[in-house]
Design a protein that fits this description.
The chain is mainly alpha-helical. Helices cover 63% and strands 2% of the residues. It contains 13 helices and 2 strands. It has helices at 2-9, 15-34, 36-119, 142-147, 151-160, 176-182, 186-195, 214-221, 224-232, 247-250, 260-272, 287-291, 296-304; strands at residues 204-206, 209-212. Strands 1-2 form a two-stranded antiparallel sheet. The protein is rod-shaped, with a radius of gyration of 52 Å.
């Protein structure tokens, strides 16, 4: 365009045309520099904004996907928590059911054992009754009557001085029933229980602590007859001492070698009658764990039960 204007300018007759073309070209040049440039800038701005929007859209999509994943994870966690709660609840229900079932079986077994004792004929003959209205005490203490096997005098003591049943010896503060079971006095034990059957579970208190029971004395001595008498009067094989041990688990602590066979026979008989010889005491021990500290015959016997 500029070349054409120059040619026309130097042609005299065409100068007017060149001048008019120049007038037309000048605004175009001005517009190109002043007006066309902002339009291009606006276009670029729009392109940048469009690109920014695209980037934001991409970020929003990523955020959306992330939120969806978190939502799914939350749903899964909630489901697992719910399942865990259900499982815990179910386990608690099952455990409670098993506990009730075990308690029911224990009560049934206990009732069966008690029924056997109720219906079975006593292995000991009843004590011969004597006229106690005019009896005279021959011994100085009720313990002396027990020591001398003077059953008539023992009955006289219980008749004339019923409070004597709670007297204590100078040896470990033993009352008469504990004294008779400790000294293997079968008939004396029976006479005392006939008078006071609830004493079958009387605890042996020494210095304020329970250290023994009549049944424990009989088991330690290996005296099967006294054990049977006490069980007929509902002596508790699982009664606890203050140290956490039970009659059952303490029964082999002080067994002498000469009593070993007798006590094993007693345990065999208890097992046949349905007593639980695997019962733990408050210390978590059983007669088997105690037997491991004893001669080998004990361990072999309890493992065979």
């Amino acid at each position: 365009m500029l070349f054409l204007q120059i040619i026309l300018w130097y042609t005299p007759k065409m100068r007017k045309i060149a001048f008019l073309l120049a007038l037309l070209y000048l605004p175009q040049s001005i517009m190109g520099n002043t007006f066309l440039h902002p339009l291009e800038t606006e276009k670029e701005n729009l392109q940048r904004q469009n690109k920014t929007l695209k980037n934001k859209n991409i970020e929003l999509k990523k955020t959306k996907k992330k939120l969806e994943k978190q939502k799914k994870l939350f749903a899964i966690t909630t489901a697992i928590t719910g399942i865990g709660a259900i499982a815990t609840s179910t386990s608690a229900i099952v455990a409670n059911k098993n506990k009730k079932e075990l308690q029911k079986q224990t009560n049934t077994k206990k009732a069966e054992i008690e029924e056997k004792f109720k219906t079975a004929k006593s292995k000991t003959t009843p004590t011969e009754k004597i006229d106690l209205t005019n009896c005279t005490l021959k011994t100085k203490t009720i313990f002396e009557a027990i020591d001398q096997d003077d059953l008539n005098d023992l009955q006289c003591w219980l008749f004339k001085k019923p409070e004597s049943i709670d007297e204590k010896t100078g040896y470990f503060d033993q009352p008469p029933l504990l004294y008779s079971t400790h000294h293997n006095k079968i008939k004396a034990t029976q006479i005392i229980l006939e008078k006071r059957p609830e004493y079958a579970n009387i605890p042996h208190k020494f210095k304020g602590k329970t250290i023994s029971y009549p049944l424990l004395n009989a088991l330690e001595k290996g005296n099967k007859e006294i054990v049977e008498i006490l069980l007929e009067y509902k002596a508790d094989l699982y009664a606890k001492n203050d140290d956490g041990s039970s009659v059952l688990t303490s029964s082999i602590d002080f067994v002498q070698s000469e009593n070993q066979t007798q006590i094993l026979n007693i345990f065999d008989d208890l097992n046949k009658k349905g007593y639980n010889l695997n019962a733990q005491d408050l210390n978590g021990k059983t007669i088997l764990t105690k037997a491991l500290e004893k001669p080998r015959a004990y361990t072999q016997f309890f493992l065979s039960l």
